[in-house]
């Protein structure tokens, strides 16, 4: 009997439009590979929080929407900073995750045993 993997007490913070400080194409490729490998290896965090430029990864046109949808389908909470969504005026463009508040992001961090920023 195979059991569904449960998310670990880990929260990942995404603060950039991609991973690292590389040019956008490489930064997006790295982020896509990172999230894809987490899902494939069943290394599921309990939450991924997107804020600042990181919210661009959950909006229309993001090259990693499928990877994020796969994680969400496996029970990973994707929390998108509402203040950032309003600042960048992209509310209608959010395609994955749930728009929340800084209180939601803080709660996810405090519920975790480990917080990783990418």
The number of helices is: 4
CATH class category: Alpha Beta
Number of strands: 5
- What string gives the helices and strands in order? EHEHEHEHE
Radius of gyration: 13 Å
Main sheet makeup: 5 strands, parallel
Helix content: 25-40%
Distance between the termini: 35 Å
What structural class do helix, strand and pairing data support?
alpha/beta
- Stretches where pLDDT falls below 50 for ≥5 residues? none
Widest beta sheet: strand line-up: 4-3-2-1-5
- What number of domains? 1
Strand content: 15-25%
Which CATH architecture is right?
A: 3-Layer(aba) Sandwich
Name the CATH homologous superfamily: DsrEFH-like
CATH topology call: Hypothetical Protein Ychn, Chain: A
What does the average pLDDT come to?
A: 95
Q: How would you sum up the global shape? A: globular
List keywords for this structure.
single chain; alpha/beta; Hypothetical Protein Ychn, Chain: A; 5-stranded parallel sheet
Verbal overview:
The protein is an alpha/beta fold. The protein has a single domain (8-117), classed as DsrEFH-like (Hypothetical Protein Ychn, Chain: A), CATH 3.40.1260.10. Helix content is 36%, strand content 21%. It has helices at 24-40, 65-73, 82-88, 102-111; strands spanning 8-14, 45-50, 77-81, 98-100, 114-117. The protein has a five-stranded parallel beta sheet with strand order 4-3-2-1-5, with helices on both faces. Helix 1 (24-40) packs parallel to helix 2 (65-73). The longest helix has 17 residues, at 24-40. The N and C termini lie far apart (35 Å). The mean pLDDT is 95.
């Amino acid at each position: 009997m195979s059991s569904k993997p449960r998310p670990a007490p880990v929260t990942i913070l995404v603060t950039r439009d991609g991973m690292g400080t590389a040019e956008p194409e490489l930064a997006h490729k790295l982020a896509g590979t990172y999230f894809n490998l987490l899902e494939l290896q069943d290394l599921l965090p309990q939450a991924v929080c997107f804020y600042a430029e990181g919210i661009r990864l959950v909006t229309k046109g993001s090259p990693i929407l499928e990877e994020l949808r796969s994680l969400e389908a496996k029970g990973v909470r994707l929390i998108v900073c509402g203040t950032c969504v309003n600042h960048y005026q992209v509310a209608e463009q959010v395609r994955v995750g749930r728009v929340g508040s800084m209180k939601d992001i803080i709660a996810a961090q405090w519920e975790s045993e480990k917080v990783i920023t990418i």
